[in-house]
Amino acid sequence: MIKKIKSRLPARKSLLGQFIRYLVTGGLAFVADFGLFALCLYKFEWHYLLANLVGLVAGLVLNYVLSIVWVFSECKRVLENKKTAEFSIFAIVGFAGVGFNQLLMYLMVGRLEWNEMLSKMVAAILVLMWNFGARKLMLFREQKVA
Asked: Strand, helix or coil at 143?
């Protein structure tokens, strides 16, 4: 089944192929993020903003690893030989996304009094778009030369 799915994905060199892979990566990172968020919120009874932060950091690390090895593997990495700088920029984009996510959660839950889980889903979709665009432009702009 995995081979069948992989054969239907657009090429990694195409922007569409990268975006679809980023959606899958984002989905997996979201599952880790959402799972930790729910665990911290409901099991440990942490404040929703702290629970959100823990989930987001775990999702960030998973997203970086999958982005390098699967999503943007056909791209020339701008800082490929400077791993610390590359991860730093990846993380800065992610932390900007965390800030955006926290602001959205505060507005939706704290001000609009929406359900925490629904708010988390809406915020995740908006931040996913930000993260893909910013990372693609800053770190993975060019294709590898064959």
From this structure: strand
Strand pairing category for 75-76 and 142-143: antiparallel
- The residue length of the chain stands at 146
Radius of gyration of the chain from Cα atoms? 16
Spacing of C-alpha 26 from chain mean position: 5
Identify the residue whose tokens are 């593997």: 73
Residue 28 to residue 38: CA distance in whole angstroms: 15
Dihedral angle, C-alpha 81, 84, 89, 90, nearest 10 °: 90
Using one digit for the tens of pLDDT, what is the confidence trace for 7-46? 677 777 788 889 999 999 988 998 999 999 999 999 999 9
- DSSP, residue by residue, 87-131: HHHHHHHHHHHHHHHHHHHIIIIIIT---HHHHHHHHHHHHHHHH
Which run of H or E residues covers position 76? strand 75-76
**pTM for the predicted model, two decimal places:** 0.69
Question: Is the CB of residue 131 less than 8 Å from the CB of residue 95?
Answer: no
pLDDT, tens only, 103-123: 999 999 999 999 999 999 999
